[in-house]
């Protein structure tokens, strides 16, 4: 059945409310006003206002605000601004969340790390993600790795397997798909357990990455200052590069000191896509 036609009479009736909101959003979009605030301004319930605004403008209120933010960011970048400065211009510098996802992490002992996986049994598999095919490595304690199949799944798995050469690996694509759904489709409100196998230094850096809010970026120097001293930027860079769990441990939010995108283990194009995806959902 076709959707009901939005008549001129209805559009004319809604015009004063919508234009008042459009004027307000035009002046205040950097504050990312929420649906309730805009509905109050229009004198309507949130549900009714969402319907009226979406029919008149062609976008939901949230998508319209995001479109203004994205346009400002694109314009700033076109004028030569760094990605970080563009995020400030778009009002994306404050804390934010990627989605309703809370992450718990659990480290192993230094002895476990020295044994290079001996005695550990992993299940691994391939499943679709928002950013292409993902290769998942699952330990009894939680997710140990999430890579992307570049250039293919065999190469991605070989990269993960080399980190734990003495471990046992069993393929289980069904389990990988369950994890993909849990991370990208329906995270819910329960912690996603991460089994972090790495040196104490690496785990310290990875924990610092978990503190970077979605929609924000930082630099290697800033992470180094947080975990010890700015002089450790190179060591931080190495630990960031060794991060085995993409997306959830957000190494994609770390930029060079000049604010530019730099090398990313799974491709700069994917890093750019991740940052854009987060910015659109703040």
Question: Which terms summarize this structure?
Answer:
282 residues, alpha/beta, 4-stranded mixed β-sheet, 12 helices, 8 strands, 15% strand
CA-atom Rg in angstroms? 22 Å
Please tell me the overall pLDDT: 76
Which structural class should the secondary elements be placed in? Answer: alpha/beta
Sum up the overall morphology in one term.
elongated
Summarize the structure.
This protein has 12 helices and 8 strands. It has helices at about 10-30, 35-40, 45-55, 60-80, 85-90, 110-115, 155-160, 175-185, 200-210, 220-225, 235-240, 270-280; strands at about 105, 120-130, 130-140, 140-150, 170, 190-195, 220, 255.
What does this 3D model show about the protein?
The chain is 48% helix and 15% strand. The protein has 282 residues and is α/β, with parallel strands linked by helices. The strands form 3 sheets. Strands 4-3-2-5 form a 4-stranded mixed sheet. The chain has a two-stranded parallel sheet with strand order 1-6. It has a two-stranded parallel sheet with strand order 7-8. Strand 2 and strand 3 (132-139) form a beta hairpin. It starts with 7 loop residues before the first helix and ends with a helix. Mean pLDDT is 76; it is low at 93-110.
SSE arrangement:
Layout: H1 8-28, H2 35-42, H3 46-57, H4 61-78, H5 83-89, E1 103-107, H6 110-114, E2 121-129, E3 132-139, E4 142-148, H7 153-161, E5 168-171, H8 173-185, E6 192-196, H9 200-210, E7 218-219, H10 220-227, H11 233-241, E8 254-255, H12 268-280
Parallel strand pairs: 1-6, 2-5, 7-8
Antiparallel strand pairs: 2-3, 3-4
């Amino acid at each position: 059945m076709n959707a009901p036609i939005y008549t001129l009479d209805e559009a004319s009736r809604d015009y004063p409310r919508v234009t008042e909101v459009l004027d307000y959003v035009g002046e205040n979009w950097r504050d990312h006003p929420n649906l309730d605030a805009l509905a109050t301004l229009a004198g309507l319930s949130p549900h009714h206002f969402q319907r009226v605004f979406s029919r008149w403008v062609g976008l939901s209120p949230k998508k319209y605000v995001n479109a203004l933010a994205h346009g400002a960011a694109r314009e700033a970048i076109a004028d030569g601004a760094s990605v970080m400065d563009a995020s400030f211009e778009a009002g994306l510098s404050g804390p934010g969340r990627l989605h309703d996802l809370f992450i718990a992490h659990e480290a192993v002992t230094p002895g476990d790390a020295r044994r290079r996986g001996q005695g550990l049994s992993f299940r691994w598999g391939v499943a679709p993600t928002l950013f292409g095919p993902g290769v998942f490595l699952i330990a009894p304690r939680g997710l140990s790795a999430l890579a992307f199949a570049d250039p293919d799944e065999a190469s991605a798995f070989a990269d993960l397997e080399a980190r734990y050469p003495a471990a046992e690996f069993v393929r289980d694509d069904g389990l990988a798909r369950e994890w993909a759904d849990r991370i990208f489709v329906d995270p819910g409100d329960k912690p996603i357990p991460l089994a972090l196998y790495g040196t104490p230094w690496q785990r310290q850096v990875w924990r610092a990455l978990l503190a970077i809010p979605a929609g924000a970026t930082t630099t290697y120097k800033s992470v180094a200052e947080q975990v010890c001293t700015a002089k450790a930027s190179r060591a931080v860079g190495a630990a960031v590069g060794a991060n085995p769990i993409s997306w959830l441990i957000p190494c994609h939010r770390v930029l060079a000191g000049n604010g530019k995108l730099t090398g990313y283990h799974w491709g700069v194009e994917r890093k750019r896509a991740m940052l854009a995806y987060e910015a659109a959902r703040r």
